[in-house]
Amino acid sequence: MAYQISDKLKNMKPSAIREIFKSLTDPRIIAFAAGNPAAESFPSEAFGLLAGEIFEKEAVKALQYGITEGFPPLREFLTERLHERFGCDKESNTTLVVTGGQQGIELTCKVMCNEGDVVICENPSFIGALNAFRSNGATLVGVDMDGDGINIEKLEKACRDNPRAKLLYVIPTFHNPAGITTSLEKRKQIYEIAKKYSLIILEDNPYGELRFAGEEIPTIKSLDTEGIVVYCGSFSKVLSAGMRVGFLSAPHDIAQKIVVAKQVEDVHTNQFFQMLCHAFVTRYDLDEHIASIRRLYKTKSALMIKALEDYMPDCVSFTRPEGGLFLWCTLPEEIELSAFVKRALERFVAVVPGTAFDPEDSGVSHSFRLTYATPTEEQIVTGVKILGELVKDMLAEVK
Amino acid sequence: MAYQISDKLKNMKPSAIREIFKSLTDPRIIAFAAGNPAAESFPSEAFGLLAGEIFEKEAVKALQYGITEGFPPLREFLTERLHERFGCDKESNTTLVVTGGQQGIELTCKVMCNEGDVVICENPSFIGALNAFRSNGATLVGVDMDGDGINIEKLEKACRDNPRAKLLYVIPTFHNPAGITTSLEKRKQIYEIAKKYSLIILEDNPYGELRFAGEEIPTIKSLDTEGIVVYCGSFSKVLSAGMRVGFLSAPHDIAQKIVVAKQVEDVHTNQFFQMLCHAFVTRYDLDEHIASIRRLYKTKSALMIKALEDYMPDCVSFTRPEGGLFLWCTLPEEIELSAFVKRALERFVAVVPGTAFDPEDSGVSHSFRLTYATPTEEQIVTGVKILGELVKDMLAEVK
Fold first, then answer.
1. Which class is domain A61-283?
2. Is the dihedral of CA A375, A376, A380, A385 positive or negative?
3. Which fold has domain A7-43+288-398?
4. B12-43+288-398: CATH number
5. pTM (whole model) above 0.80
6. Chain A residue with minimal CA distance to B251?
7. With contacts defined as CB-CB under 8 Å, which chain B residues touch A200?
8. ipTM
């Protein structure tokens, strides 16, 4: 039967990343493609102990319906932490618990955009966000990035050219996929442009806790005197991805509408894991736990960069992230990206082609994303070596 | 600041039920209003034991990202059960795990409806579904119910009058809020009308396992030779509401689009609880557990009906459900509903006014919803007695 699918969904395909993820069941594959945090980043033992206590003492509360805004003690903790560490002023904003940062992004778009409204994004950008915007019928406009964040002239032009622009989506810190961190000066410029063109900024910061080099930079949200920034964060990269607990901080009036929209998506976020997160941050040292993840990624990213320096021809450039999970490699133009990705997979190395991250789906990219979070140290070296050899083989073929 | 909220959300308010639920922290309140399952319906002890095992043996799998479609062993179990018990043919349908039945409803609307398309619903209907449709910009058309389900003539007229109708949302079994079960004959008529007018039927069956009287009636999905029914179910009323694990069965092509839409809402449903559900159904006897819930609700519903017979004046009518959580009381016209609900709360009895369940939000209703699931047996008798006295007081005032 030919179904009449809604206009917003009918041309959408499953995310390339999630599809690649499904194919990763082959244990021979070196998984540079997935966005999975390292298994060592989950406090499994502490969670097991705390889970036992919750099921023993508070099972009914953990298994019964909760309230849409989130488990109150967890919200209180988050409000304080977001205020102190991430500049989300607690007087003028409401903190909500959401079902992963992904839901925070999707809900913000649903609340702010009509079908046909424009969302301006960095190019490249996080595919999960791009598809969330598409699934709400938004039109995406991509703005190229420089080494220190979005290109400001092109951003201003995109704002001028798109009177229906409502939302400006940015990942200023340890960008996915580009591995770039936006400078403070650019953050200020981005904020001013959003103000000038009456855009709401959606600042996505799932990796913000994971800095392993360089200096902390204030969030765009910390500059938000006008109440135009929605800030999204997540426990996925510091406690557990599979539990689906994220959070956001938004001006009260926007937050109130997000609550309404969330209520009809999933009523509330898993109650047990909200209680578990709260128990963890109360009884354990979250900062020490995060410090251990930073050390882990510092080592693994350094190893990957060293391997790229050792095994990649000089014509391949790559970013050097100061935190987060990803780096971004760019091939010389004579190498065809889709063939490269396909042949890498034949050699059992999975990477994500840059085309997946293009807001405007132009099909043109010479870049691919690597993660150092998921693979072992041995796999990092072996995998990069294989990719380096593949680049050399392909260069030899075109010469 | 005055924000430009999207057209679909700007006039939406938080669900009356969830708002009442928030006010139920006062322990003096008798909670006839909430849709919460009885705390005794949660297999807390078994969940505690199984949780310990999962954290001990499979913590990383439980805490890492999963796949959007759901945890494969749980999906396999559900596919078989839905096939055997609920007529969801496993060859022509895909089973998906969703974040509560609520998400299944919301996603189906997102995938099938453009803004401005019409969803035809029973009047009254489940407020969570109505608001999910509204949040996707759908226009709602309500069709009155008879004692054996939706009025067929009015349904046909609604289909004729609304060429933009795409979806027909029904709760044929133990209807929320009306407590009615649709007869088999009407199920067949509903299916034929949907076929005739090219509508997709969304059959919501969260209470289908909870029959405590009468005979099982085949689902509408079991009649689905054309592939036009999406069937939604949930573990919320049989295992845990707070864990947010539901499921749906849909024709493959629709399911594929639902996966895309789900991916961008929350990536996947909480992985740990999917594993926990699977462990429970594998290691424990789900049917025996459900049988214990049926016995519980049989006793509590009988007690509420007896109390209504004893304490309510004859001018108040009420439904006699054969299963599920709710019954529906209708006041004589001379009693003003909103005053009744307000005064009941002053006497510490919370009920939900029928106006909350009106798809067209007409503000006109003389009915209210009661649940016997949440209150204790003592509260059921006390609460109904208070409501009966209030009706008598209000009747005396208007005479």
1. alpha beta
2. negative
3. Aspartate Aminotransferase, domain 1 (3.90.1150)
4. 3.90.1150.10
5. yes
6. A1
7. 3
8. 0.96
